[in-house]
Specification:
Layout (H helix, E strand, L loop, with lengths): L11 H8 L3 H9 L7 E2 L5 E2 L2 H15 L4 H8 L5 H32 L3 H11 L3 H16 L6 H9 L10 H14 L2 H19 L8 H20 L6 H14 L9 H14 L2 H14 L8 H12 L1
Antiparallel strand pairs: 1-2
Helix pairs in contact: 5-6, 5-9, 7-10, 9-14, 11-12, 11-15, 12-15, 13-15
Pfam families: MerR_1
GO molecular function: DNA binding; DNA-binding transcription factor activity
Organism: Amycolatopsis panacis
Length: 314
């Protein structure tokens, strides 16, 4: 009768040479029960067969994927499936990636601003906020802006509705925009600016002079900015004939029946109103929201606005 060929066995050193794993690592897996020896030699050395070699490759693969030793043991014992392990670890990795992106956004902001320790702590806290906390921050901001004032409820409802909504997998730019946005709405100077605009609206409503911004007004503003841009591109100064013509047009379009569009006082008051409404921080508020929410980019119109203000004051 022909004898069956002996099954080859390997020492830990031979397993190390075949797999590239350090002897220390293989011995550790064996001590932890993940790689029990097939048998021992007469001298007591651990020996492993081809099945143990395949088991070791599986352990290495799972460990390289970040699976912890307890879960590896459960998989080897058939207490869980590799698929269930994969699902669990994909979720864990997704959360880890999210947190790493948050950290990266904070660190980028730190580098950009050369931040001090307290500001770093604040930025990290802002980055960790939940959707509910972000929405509450905006809600509280607008509630304070209209508290005790008779303002247009429809207008402020629209302001509240434009909330930051970070996607589940935000880009670094979106995270950085959120940090800047959260700091902006908590900035005392910015809050004072928006509150002042709210008070101005309430006063206009009380005097019967308030008119809710409509499409015609937005188109009118766009026309003014377009003409200011053309003047800038042509090298015209605010006190040039082109600048004066634009100022005359803006004053005439903006004056009520009881106001004189040629009056320098009226024009200066109009310029002050435009300056507050077109403050760079107010513009930045909407630009940041656009980045966070993935809206079309909102270009700056500060150069055009400054030209128009100078023309009105000239």
């Amino acid at each position: 009768m022909t004898a069956m060929p002996a099954t080859p066995v390997f020492t830990i050193g031979e397993l190390s040479r075949r797999t590239g794993l350090p002897v220390k690592t293989i011995r550790f897996y064996s001590d932890e029960g993940l790689l029990p020896p097939t048998r021992r030699s007469g001298a007591g050395y651990r020996l492993y067969d081809v099945h143990a070699l395949a088991r070791l490759e599986l352990v290495r693969t799972l460990r390289e994927l970040g699976v912890g030793l307890p879960d590896v043991a459960r998989a080897l014992a058939r207490e869980t499936t590799v698929r269930d392990l994969a699902v669990h670890h994909v979720e864990a990795l997704d959360e880890q990636i999210r947190r790493l992106r948050l950290r990266r956004a904070v660190l980028r902001a730190v580098v950009k601003r050369d931040s001090e320790l307290e500001e770093v702590k604040l930025m990290n806290r802002l980055a960790q906020m939940s959707d509910e906390q972000r929405h509450r921050l905006v809600e509280e901001f607008w509630t304070e802006m209209e508290a005790g004032l008779d303002v247009d409820p429809e207008f402020y409802a629209r302001m509240r509705a434009a909330r930051p909504a970070l996607p589940d997998d935000p880009s670094p730019q979106q995270l950085e925009a959120w940090i800047e946005f959260a700091e902006l709405v908590q900035d005392p100077d910015f809050r004072a600016l928006i509150r002042r605009l709210s008070e101005r609206q309430a006063a206009a409503r009380a005097a019967g002079e308030y008119e809710q911004p409509g499409q015609a007004q937005r188109e009118q503003w766009f026309t003014w900015m377009t003409e200011a841009r053309a003047a800038l591109d042509a090298g015209d100064a605010p006190d040039s004939a082109v600048g004066r013509a634009l100022a005359t047009k803006v004053a005439a379009d903006s004056a009520r029946g009881d106001q004189n569009p040629q009056d320098p006082g009226f024009r200066h008051t109009l310029a002050a109103t435009f300056a507050d409404g077109g403050d760079p921080r107010a513009e930045r508020y909407w630009q940041l929201l656009a980045i966070i929410n993935g809206w079309p980019a909102i270009p700056s119109s500060q150069e055009e606005l400054q030209f128009l203000l100078a023309a009105l004051r000239a």
